[in-house]
From TrEMBL:
Protein's name according to its UniProt entry: DUF1501 domain-containing protein
Domain of life: Bacteria
One Pfam family it belongs to: DUF1501
Length: 410
């Protein structure tokens, strides 16, 4: 055995021993939700106290707290979009917090590139072959399991690309209906064909074991079967039912620690709306879905951190078609029992003309990796070596890092 193999084996044993010594780590979970299309963070968590907010937003500006269709007051400067009212109790309980002016440091306004950077964890570098959640999965303390990581969606996401096996949960109530791959005779034939230890065989074995474990877990959960449903990608409209199903699975399967899904439809260039309209309807479905996810998690919510993020924000000023264009800074949502919420987290640069990027955008003060790193370290037990692999070349200090202390309760 070569020296590097001995060192790798020793590191793996050390991580495994850590998890055995601290079984609480195995109960801790992370769910990441990516809002594809660049949601307007300035309409999600509204800086109503900023002079430039209402003056720049025309017909899509939301009113201050107390006014008709006004935002839900969070503090003296920020309010929650009224469509997200189901989430306010989580804020009041201190389990929901927001990191405004956050996002990727790369200045691209391309959806494709920005999502790629956020999922690879290496902004500005397109050559990264794998996703940051797969690198995290490969190095997490504790033994591997077929359903330790779950993707909910019709296609494998960039964030889970890599060598570590990830289980898949389809969308819609028919996601777990029997398919050809579930036929015992077909499985026996494939088992003979892919019974080796090569990468293709291991991928097949992991997929089969993961699907079997998911079905067994969900069979124990009432109300998960149905004859109708959409098998396509998750959308804001269908998110609630899918989210509850995902939460139930995470709660029922003791092996699951990581989960990811995405929700599309947030590119509101035209007729965005304010307290009512296109964006408000989608936010209502999203808020209902997050509340349903928490409901599905049940008691496991106390050990779960849910992170909601989007590839970039949108312009401060309303455009000529009643919408907003591609911008920079956005807002990250943190929800769960371990979150030290009930407050705005991180530094806020303001919306004064001098503070705007390119004279039009909210600045990115908190790098999304600076928000995620303390969660991975303190919640999931990732050490410095693993964090360096998950987020190579990530900033470790600065104004944003100072403002991000105390994201979690413990």
């Amino acid at each position: 055995m070569q020296r590097r193999q001995v060192l790798a084996a020793g590191a793996a044993w050390s991580l495994w021993s850590t998890a055995r010594a601290d079984p609480e780590l195995a109960r801790r979970k992370l769910v990441v939700i990516l809002l594809r299309g660049a949601v307007d963070g300035l309409s999600v968590v509204v800086p109503y106290g900023e002079r430039n907010y209402a003056a720049s937003r025309g017909s899509i500006a939301l009113a201050a707290p107390g006014a008709d269709d006004g935002v839900i007051k969070l503090d003296s400067n920020f309010g929650l979009h009224p469509s997200l009212a189901p989430l306010k109790p989580w804020w009041d309980r201190g389990a929901l917090g927001f990191v405004h002016a956050s996002g990727s440091p790369d200045p691209t306004r391309s959806h494709f590139d920005a999502q790629d950077y956020m999922e690879s964890g290496t902004p500005g570098r397109k050559s990264t072959p794998d996703g940051w959640m797969n690198r995290l999965l490969a190095g997490l303390p504790g033994p591997a399991a077929p359903t330790r990581a779950i993707n909910m969606g019709a296609t494998p996401p960039r964030i889970f690309a890599g060598s570590a096996g990830v289980a898949s949960l389809g969308v819609g109530p028919k996601a777990l209906a029997n398919q050809a791959i579930d036929d015992p005779h077909l499985q026996a034939a494939f088992a003979k064909l892919y019974g080796g230890v090569d990468p293709l065989s291991r991928s097949y074995q992991d997929a089969t074991e993961g699907r079997g474990e998911i079905k067994r877990s969900m069979m124990m959960a009432p109300g998960t079967a149905s004859d109708t449903g959409d098998q396509g990608a998750p959308s804001a409209r269908s998110f609630a039912a899918d989210a509850r199903r995902l939460g139930t699975l995470i709660r029922k399967d003791p092996h699951t620690q990581l989960a990811f899904t995405s929700v599309g439809g947030w590119d509101t260039h035209v007729n965005q709306g304010g307290a009512k309209g296109q964006l408000a309807n989608r936010l209502a479905s999203l808020g209902e879905g997050l509340d349903a996810l928490a409901g599905g998690l049940g008691d496991s919510m106390q050990d779960t951190v849910i992170v909601v993020m989007s590839e970039f924000g949108r312009t401060l000023r309303q455009n000529g078609t009643g919408g907003t264009d591609h911008g920079r800074g956005n807002v990250m949502w943190l929800l769960g029992g371990p979150v030290a919420g009930g407050r705005m987290i991180g530094e806020w640069p303001g919306l004064d003309d001098a503070a705007l990027v390119d004279g039009r955008d909210l600045a990115v003060v908190s790098d999304f990796r600076q928000v995620l790193t303390p969660i991975l370290r303190r919640h999931l037990g990732a050490d410095d070596a693993l964090l360096d692999r998950v987020f190579p070349r990530a900033p470790s200090s600065g104004l944003a890092a100072a403002g991000l202390k105390g994201i979690l309760r413990t």
